[in-house]
TrEMBL record:
<keyword id="KW-0813">Transport</keyword>
<keyword id="KW-0732">Signal</keyword>
<dbReference type="InterPro" id="IPR050490">
    <property type="entry name" value="Bact_solute-bd_prot1"/>
</dbReference>
<protein>
    <submittedName>
        <fullName>Carbohydrate ABC transporter substrate-binding protein</fullName>
    </submittedName>
</protein>
<comment type="similarity">
    <text>Belongs to the bacterial solute-binding protein 1 family.</text>
</comment>
<feature type="signal peptide">
    <location>
        <begin position="1"/>
        <end position="25"/>
    </location>
</feature>
Amino acid sequence: MSSIRSRRAVAAVAGGLGFALVLTACSSGDSGGGSDASGDTTADCADFEVYGDLSGKEVDVYTGIVTPEDTPYMDSYKPFEECTGAKIVYTGDKAFETQILVRAKAGNPPDIAIVPQPGLLQQLVATGAAVEAPADVAANVDEFWGEDWKAYGSVDGTFYAAPSGASVKSLVWYSPTEFADSGYEVPTTLDDLMALTEQIQSDGKVPWCAGIGSGEATGWPITDWMEDFMLRLSGPEVYDQWVNHEIPFNSPESEAALDGVGDYLKNPDFVNGGLGDVTSIATTTFQDGGLPILEGTCSLHRQASFYASNFPEGTTVAEDGDVFAFYLPGETEEDHPVLGGGEFNLAFSDAPEVQAFQTYLSSDLWANTKATISSEATGGGWISANTGLDVANLTNPIDQLAAGILQDPNTVFRFDGSDMMPAAVGSNAFWKQATNWITGQSTKETVDNIEAAWPAS
C-alpha cells in the first residue's frame, strides 16, 4: 500500500486474493508475461536470458506494501525467479517508513526498497547507503517514463530509482446516467467545470459533495484540492517552488489556489449535496463524501482513483455504469497537469543479481506482468505510468482511465505536495488549517498559519 493510502487510512481494495500463480514451463515458445486460458501465468524465458544465470543468488526486497496487496507483487516476481534461478525474498512491514531509515543508517539496508515518496527517497540517499541506478535501468526509464518521473527518482542530478506503481488524484466522480439524462457534458477546461457546476445548480440540484474527515488526518482531501489548483492556476514550475518552499506557503499563488477551491467548496449553493451545509464537509468522512452521487443528491465529487473501492458492493464503476470519473481539467484543453503518487525501487547494493532485478522492475515486461496479475487477483487497483504498459491488460475501467491519463504525452505529472513537505507542515499544519478553513477561517489566515509552521531549517 502506498504511503498516501496507508497514512490516510484509505480502505484497501475489497475482496480476497484467492489466486494462485502457477508458472508453467519457461520456454522460448511461451508467450511472455501473459496468462493462458486457465488463468495460469506463463513466462517466456527468452525475455530473461539477458539477466544470465543467477542460480543460488538472493535479492532482499523491503516495502510497506502488505497483505492483501503484497501477493500480486510477489507473484509478479516469479517469472524472474523461475527463469533466472534467483530467489526474491519479500518483506512487507507496516513500519517501513521508520524502519527503512533506521536500517540504512545502521548499515543494514535491504538490497532493494520500494519507496513511496520522493522525500523519503532523498532522506535515504542522504544516509550514503543507496547506490546509483545502473545504466540499463536508466535506459528503461528514459524509454518508458517522462522526465518528470525520472526527476522524482533522482537526487542532486544523480538518478537512483526507477518508478514503479502510480496513482491519479486529479479525478472528478459523477453519475453517467445523470449526465446522459440531463444533457451534461464532461468539461475539458476549468471554465467548463465551473459552467457545469452552475448549470447543475440552476437545475435545482446541489452540484458537489465532499468529506474531509479522516481521524487524526482530517483535512487531507483539501490539500489535494489545493495542490490540483496550484498546478492548474500557476503551473508546474511554481508548484515545485511552493512544495520546496522556494516561495512561501502564503504566496499570492497559494492564496489564489485556495480561493479557487473555495469557489466550489465554500459556496453554499454548490455544496454539500445530501450531507448538509459547507461546515458538514469537515464532519463527513472522506469515505462517505462521494456516496450521495448514488442517491442522486449530488452530482460531482473530487477524489483519487482509489475511491472506486469505497462505493458499496454491487456498484458498477464504468463509463456506462452507476458511477465513473473524468479528468479534472486544466485551464485550457491543451493543459494536462496531473496530481498523483507512486513508488520507486531504490537499491542499496550493486551486486549483479540486484541490478538485474532492478532492470526487470523498470521494464515494460514487469509492468504488464504486474498489471495482469493484479487484474486477475483483485479486479485491479494497480497501474503504472510506464508507457509500455498495455492498457488492455487492465480490466478495471478506472485503472484504464487513470493509466490513459498517465500515458497521455501532454500529461505533466506532479507528486502529491503535502507528502513532500516537512511533516510539521504536510501532515500536520496543512491538514489542521485546511479543516479550520472549511469551517470558516479566511484564506489569508489559513496560508499564513501554515507558513508559520514551516520549520526554520
